[in-house]
Amino acid sequence: MEKKKTDWVNYRQLKKDEIIEKDDEVLCDSKIGWVTTNDRCVGTRAPDPQYSSHRIYRRNILNELRTKKLKRITEKYETIY
Hints:
The chain is an alpha+beta fold. The chain has one domain (11-80). It has 1 helix and 4 strands.
């Protein structure tokens, strides 16, 4: 089995205690690779990625930027109306 390089161009690693979101991905088994976070973990804090026994979470940068932009547009719209 060939190991694929982690895509750190389009993703960023979650920091310790950062809140895990629905579209985040987790690496908990190198044989399986990156998978979408399960619903039980959404809303909880990410573990410290310095410890290899913990899961490692990543977030798609483009999705994060879209979400922030949409939130700003919604807030502006709500202040107008």
